[in-house]
Design goal:
Oligomer: single chain
Number of strands: 9
Radius of gyration: 17 Å
Strand order of the largest sheet: 1-2-3-4
Helix content: 10-25%
Low-confidence stretches: none
Largest sheet: 4 strands, mixed
Mean pLDDT: 95
Distance between the termini: 54 Å
Bound molecules: zinc ion
Structural class: mainly beta
Length: 134
């Protein structure tokens, strides 16, 4: 890995069908990529660099990684990766997915005529917290 990527994955070899697999059906080989930003070089037909895309598997899409942004330089892409470390994440104790915390809640759930504030995994539906609203 070129040192210019500063420890972030640059053009990683992702598992097969990484960007075309429903999150709740991902095999174990995809598991290591939850919450990890990586950089993908976009090139034109002549191999000239067009941009560096930063992506992360974080539940932002149901079947693929999420685009965190793009930069004209590798340094710019590294900055996007570094900034993404500030995102609040939710780690599911059931399926071990790491998703953006805002996708997990808190949200309001109506159940048997009562309202609850819940935090739940958007990948497997595991309810991490559930509190009756007053
Ligand atoms: Zn889960």
């Amino acid at each position: 890995m070129p040192s210019a990527a500063k420890g972030f994955h640059l053009d990683p070899r992702l598992p097969m069908r990484f960007d075309s697999t429903p999150n709740n059906k991902r095999p174990a080989s995809h598991g290591n990529w939850w919450g990890i930003p990586y950089i993908v070089t976009r090139r034109d037909d002549n191999g000239e660099v067009l941009a560096f895309n930063v992506r992360r598997l974080d539940g932002g899409a149901w079947d693929r990684s999420t685009s965190l942004g793009q930069a004209e330089t590798l340094e710019g892409a590294v900055e996007i990766c570094q900034r993404s470390a500030d995102d609040e994440m939710f780690e599911c104790n059931a399926c071990h997915a790491t998703i953006m915390a805002r996708y997990a809640g808190p949200m309001t759930l109506l159940e048997d005529g009562e309202y609850y504030t819940v935090t739940m995994c958007s990948v497997c539906g595991f309810v991490a917290s559930k509190e009756k609203q007053s």
